[in-house]
Amino acid sequence: MGLEPIPGNPALEKHYSVGELAKSWGLSANTIRRIFENESGVLEWGTEESRFRRGYKTLRIPESVMLRVHRRLRK
Fold first, then answer.
1. Are 63 and 54 in contact (CB under 8 A)?
2. What per-residue string of b and e applies to 54-73 under the rule 16 or more CB within 10 Å gives b?
3. Does the pLDDT value for residue 15 go beyond 60?
4. Number of domains the chain contains
5. Is 75 exposed, middle or buried (0-12, 13-18, 19+ CB in 10 A)?
6. In a domain, 50, yes or no
7. Residue 9 above 80 pLDDT?
8. Of 68, 63, 69, 64, which is closest to residue 32 (Cα–Cα)?
9. Which of 1, 10, 26, 33 is 20 to 30 A (C-alpha) from 51?
10. Assigned domain for 7 exists
11. CA-to-CA separations, 36 to 5, 7, 20, 40, 60, in angstroms, rounded
């Protein structure tokens, strides 16, 4: 039995990867990262960049955040 989304509970709503949104919106992954990197509600984890190692960040974008940004960008 899978978890059903509960209205008002962002932990259980669908979360999108950068790649999923890039494909769906017809944009590059880098563009999606730039759009969502400082957006409130986006889950972000990874490692910080250091002098000798590249930093990696993973983003997961909740459906409610994706819809909010889409409405804001729409003309």
1. no
2. eeeeebbbbeebbeebeeee
3. yes
4. 1
5. exposed
6. no
7. no
8. 69
9. 33
10. no
11. 22, 22, 13, 8, 9
Contacts (Cβ under 8 Å, ≥6 apart) of 49: 55
Start-to-end CA span in the chain (Å):
40
Token pair 């494909």 in the structure block, residue = 23
Question: Tokens 């000798």, residue?
Answer: 52
Tokens of 3: 């978890």
Decide if pLDDT at 75 tops 70: yes
In this prediction the pTM is: 0.76
Map tokens 């993973």 to a residue.
Answer: 58
Position 6 scores a pLDDT of: 55
What pLDDT does 11 receive? 73
Whether 54 shows a pLDDT value over 90: the answer reads: no
| Residue-range definition of the domain harbouring residue 25 | 14-42+59-75
